[in-house]
Amino acid sequence: MEPTIDPAQSQPARQDAGASEIVARRHDGRAALIFPDRRLSYAELDALTGRIARGVQGRRRVAVLAESRIETAVAVVAALRAGVPVIPVNPRSGVRELAHVVADARPDALLLAPDADTPPGLSDLPAIPVELDAPGRDGPPGPKALDPEAAALIVYTSGTTGPPKGAVLPRRAIATNLDALADAWAWSECDVVAHGLPLFHVHGLVVGILGPLRRGGTAVHTGRFSPRAIHRALAVDGATVVFGVPTMYRRLADAAESDPELAQALAGARLLVSGSAPLPRAEHNRIRALTGRGVLERYGMTETLMNTALRADAGPAPGTVGPPVRGVQLRLVDDDGAELDRADDETIGEIQVRGPNLFTGYLNRPQATAKTMRDGWFATGDMATRDARGYVRIVGRRATDLIKSGGYKIGAGEIEAALREHPAVSDAAVTGAPDDDLGERVVAWVVLREGASADADELTDHVASELAPHKRPRTVNFLAELPRNELGKVIKSRL
After folding, report:
1. I want to staple 362 with a disulfide (CB 3.0 to 4.6 A). Which of 136, 165, 268, 435 is the partner?
2. End-to-end alpha-carbon separation of the chain, Å?
3. With a cut of 50, which residues of the chain have pLDDT below it?
4. pLDDT, tens digit, for every residue of 417-453?
């Protein structure tokens, strides 16, 4: 287990570089990165990334094959030190997707582990192996003042209406947003953050790896997620914070029901944080009953990083993602773009945000960038309500989750939450379908718990008893499972 760090005695991490130097620099034996097959101290990470940074310095952009391995984290930190924008590439992308990314971003080289298989779509790029044990040649590059507005990451978003777009995240956005999360979560160099999230998304890479490194703490990545791996991170590596998505927390709760030692290990964590999709209230209650710990939720997206987060000093609030983090302004607007000032947790509007957390635009797509901006406000496309505390409750995406039925605006998210509270329901999704009378009708897609039974009438009556009657599903479809992506978000286009 990592020794407990006394903030008064530990070597302070350098933060004077602000947005220019995203990752804290330490030159001691404190663990920076722990992966299943390797760990690196800050001193080792500094030497490694300095050498690699010297090798990529001067390149325009580099791609990184973002496998769940320590070489991915090393490559990203090295490129950031060199001031070279990084394109994290999903190793499971298809040839067509990879060809689009290469043609659009035109990286100069591909950084990857020496034994990694190069995907066919990237085979024409010059490869730079990230060798952890290569002998040192030159020292790290000398101090270099980097523009906070310079690109740090170019992260490709899923293309729902066309090819994926590269969101350009400047150094300023990453640094200030991680500092805002540190404020919300009392995040310090004493924290050891554990997760098994993919490293080609901002959740796993920016928050889960760069977040603890910016604080001078430790990032533990489990490789593949499993309850056993999280248990080890807590019990052996001394993890104090766990990041996950709802499907991961459901699996942790399932395992903890039969494994008191896992429940005890989770109970010892300082923070349990969930994101990328709503955590059902039933899972909140189950985890608290098993561990005595509540789960904090937060809300963000690629273009904005984290917009809101429940604070560690306020505690969980199931169903909400908390207030805006420090420095982020958030408003709700109606269909005409007029601001909604009703904090009644009922009035639905589209979330718009502005602040230092925003991206600088979509690479090579000025029209797409302009379409999302409203006088400095970024239009997220997410629909939500806000209560008197300023807490935000997400009800869904404008394109797929806002259902206009019988003159009402209905958020799919609140119906999904109500369905998941039925004792027979394991999972649920809600969509809209054309209806000659209502305009759109509410359609539910339901996965029942193993051994449980419920019919459509029972479920629609349940929703009508929990919510206004006009929100009840008109059609209920039963499935074995819902289609989800790597982060647990339901892919409604496949329903």
Report:
1. 165
2. 45
3. 1-17
4. 889 889 999 889 898 888 877 778 899 999 998 888 9
Rg of the chain's alpha carbons, rounded to an integer? 23
Sign of CA dihedral 208, 209, 210, 213: positive
Look at strands 425-435 and 439-448 and give their pairing: antiparallel
Strand partners, 129: 112
DSSP string computed for 158-194? P-SSSS--EEEEEHHHHHHHHHHHHHHHT--TT-EEE
How remote is the C-alpha of 470 from its chain's centroid? 33
CB atoms under 10 Å from CB of 388, counted, come to: 8
DSSP state of 389: T
With H, G, I as helix, E, B as strand and everything else as coil, classify residue 112: strand
Q: Which two tokens stand for residue 333?
A: 């607007």
Cα→Cα distances 6→3, 28, 41, 72, Å: 9, 14, 17, 30
Full-model pTM: 0.83
249 SS3 class: helix
Which is nearest to 328 in space by CA: 285, 297, 299, 360? 299
Instruction: Please state, in angstroms and rounded to a whole number, the distance separating the CA atoms of residues 430 and 477.
Output: 10
Residue 237 one-letter amino acid:
D
